[in-house]
Design goal:
Rossmann fold, alpha/beta, two-stranded antiparallel ribbon, binds S-adenosylmethionine, globular, eight-stranded mixed beta sheet, 14 strands, 18 helices
Length: about 425
């Protein structure tokens, strides 16, 4: 007999925590209209005990199940119901559903029975990169708290090193040291010399895997949601040829770093190895190194036009649409009767679109040949330029000098806020509550 989640008393306590968190974020009027994606299990337990309880309409609930037997049981159960009480069903991996189904959900609750694997990471990436969660929405992630593969344990260390060390910026081909341009080879050598390998890192810090896992779980999800739209889906900001050349630089750089370190780089960062050797451009485009590089490129482009680097930061944020953590609750519990330890995070995420409100920060870009370029000031030459552009381009905008100053200051302020927000994620280690 398969495990009954419906009869598990601790699972029920977890469901009550989900209900409590959802009620905290939404008023009664809104609840029935919420669109929910969940993994209800063959018994449909989550629908009966969570979403029905909250009054979410069944037709707004999407249930995903990849187990063939479980799906058959779930489907039979749903088919017995009158039309009005049916939920929508999908047989397959939830990560594939998120990739393919072009629907925006208010709540996505991923109740896995496996550990925090790369498959879970894949589903989370699809949500943020394809914007599957509403502007303000809830994300739940529930996983088994152990039994990772060795490779995944190393991922934790990689991520942890990333939090502590900041991002390595050696990849930028135009980076300068003093007045000298740094050559590609010098950059690689410097990178390999200065980089902290996970194995050094764990020895140095005496890291305990259990502690690490708990710290990383919440923070890596929160940080992952900063990625927002995949740069490959932002051709206006990053024209495909430009992006492709950047991706090629990163691939070349990491291959060289691996050679320079006698194979240690890929041995210890096997996630990097997989995506780079597989030339999975979508994955490469969202590596932290790539993000840093892209932002640096935007900043350079804007600096040439005399604009403050924060303007580029603002533009990047505006178009990639990250999700910010507004509220988070974390739980640990042992599911019954097996006693399997579970960890669960519930996030209330908000894209804070008001920060990008056109009244405060009107379109600061002009679209030229399909690419966004900086604002034009209200000068004679600016006016001439804008008239030319306006004939062809919808988004050409003219700002007066006063507006321009105000907007620039606003963008600088926002950039600072964002940096402070990213730092605050380092503190994100919520207390874990024991259910029972
Ligand atoms: C923990 S159970 C769900 C329990 C349910 N949420 C409840 O409250 O009773 C997880 C279910 O999701 C399915 N599942 C696990 N990983 C999945 C994946 N990657 N994609 C789709 N379904 C998955 C499992 O087969 C199982 O039926």
């Amino acid at each position: 007999m398969t495990h009954s989640f419906l009869d598990d008393p601790v699972k029920q306590l977890w469901r009550e925590k989900v209900i409590e968190f959802v009620r905290k974020q939404y008023g009664v009027g809104k609840l029935s209209k919420l669109k929910v994606l969940c993994m209800p299990g063959s018994e449909m337990g989550e629908v009966l005990r969570v979403w029905d309880e909250l009054g979410v309409r069944r037709k707004n609930i999407y249930g995903v199940e990849y187990g063939d037997e479980e799906f058959a049981e779930l489907e039979a159960r749903v088919k017995e119901l009158p039309n009005k009480q049916r939920i929508r069903l999908y047989n397959g991996d939830v990560a594939d559903f998120l990739r393919d189904e072009n629907t925006v959900f208010d709540i996505i609750n991923l109740d896995y029975c496996s550990y925090f694997s790369r498959d879970v990471g894949k589903a989370l990436n699809e949500i943020t990169q394809r914007q599957r969660l509403a502007e303000k929405g809830i994300l739940g992630v529930n996983v088994l708290e152990r039994r990772e593969t060795k490779a995944r344990q190393r991922d934790y260390l990689d991520i942890s090193a990333l939090f502590d060390e900041g991002l390595v910026k050696y990849v930028d081909p135009k980076r300068e040291k003093g007045n000298n341009k740094i050559t590609f080879e010098e950059g690689v050598r410097e990178f390999v010399k200065e980089i902290k390998f996970p194995s050094d890192y764990s020895i140095e810090k005496g890291i305990d895997l259990r502690d690490l896992r708990q710290q990383i779980f919440t923070r890596s999800i929160a940080l992952g949601f900063q990625v927002g739209i995949n740069p490959m889906d932002l051709p206006n900001l990053f024209p495909p040829e430009f992006l492709k050349s950047m991706l090629e630089i990163v691939i070349k750089f990491f291959l060289a770093a691996d050679k320079e370190s006698d194979g240690r780089y890929f041995r210890e960062y096997d996630y990097a190895k997989e995506i780079i050797e597989g030339e999975n451009l979508r994955d490469i485009a969202v590596t932290p190194n790539m993000s840093t590089l892209l932002q640096a490129q935007l900043k350079q482009q804007h600096a040439k036009q005399g604009l403050h680097p924060s303007v580029a930061g603002f533009i990047y944020l505006k178009y990639k649409k990250p999700y910010f953590v507004e509220d988070v609750a974390s739980y640990r519990y042992a599911s019954q009767p097996s006693g399997s330890p579970m960890i669960c995070d519930l996030f209330y995420l908000d894209q804070r679109r008001e920060w990008f409100n056109p009244e405060k920060a009107d379109m600061v870009l002009n679209k030229i040949n399909g690419t966004y370029k900086s604002v034009w000031k209200n000068t004679k030459s600016g006016q001439k330029k804008i008239r030319q552009l306006a004939r062809n381009e919808r988004e050409a905008t003219l700002l007066s000098n006063a507006d321009y100053e105000e907007q620039r200051n606003y963008m600088i302020e926002l950039d600072q806020k964002y940096t402070a927000y990213i730092r605050s994620l380092e503190q994100l280690k919520p207390d874990r509550i024991r259910l029972s």
